[in-house]
Amino acid sequence: MSQHSDDKRQMSQTKKQQLLDAALHLFIEQGIQATATAKIAKTAGVANGTLFHHFANKQALVEALHLSIKEEMAQAITPPDSSLPLREQLIHLWQAAIQWGLSHPQKFQFLRQLANDPQYPLSQQHAMLSLALPLLPQLIAQGQSEGILADWPQALILNTCHCQFLSTVSLFTEQPELAIDPACLQTAFDMLWYGMARR
Amino acid sequence: MSQHSDDKRQMSQTKKQQLLDAALHLFIEQGIQATATAKIAKTAGVANGTLFHHFANKQALVEALHLSIKEEMAQAITPPDSSLPLREQLIHLWQAAIQWGLSHPQKFQFLRQLANDPQYPLSQQHAMLSLALPLLPQLIAQGQSEGILADWPQALILNTCHCQFLSTVSLFTEQPELAIDPACLQTAFDMLWYGMARR
Amino acid sequence: MSQHSDDKRQMSQTKKQQLLDAALHLFIEQGIQATATAKIAKTAGVANGTLFHHFANKQALVEALHLSIKEEMAQAITPPDSSLPLREQLIHLWQAAIQWGLSHPQKFQFLRQLANDPQYPLSQQHAMLSLALPLLPQLIAQGQSEGILADWPQALILNTCHCQFLSTVSLFTEQPELAIDPACLQTAFDMLWYGMARR
Amino acid sequence: MSQHSDDKRQMSQTKKQQLLDAALHLFIEQGIQATATAKIAKTAGVANGTLFHHFANKQALVEALHLSIKEEMAQAITPPDSSLPLREQLIHLWQAAIQWGLSHPQKFQFLRQLANDPQYPLSQQHAMLSLALPLLPQLIAQGQSEGILADWPQALILNTCHCQFLSTVSLFTEQPELAIDPACLQTAFDMLWYGMARR
DNA sequence: GATGAATGAGCTTTCATTCAT
DNA sequence: CATGAATGAAAGCTCATTCAT
Question: In this structure, what CATH number is given to the domain that contains residue A29?
Answer without folding.
Answer: 1.10.10.60
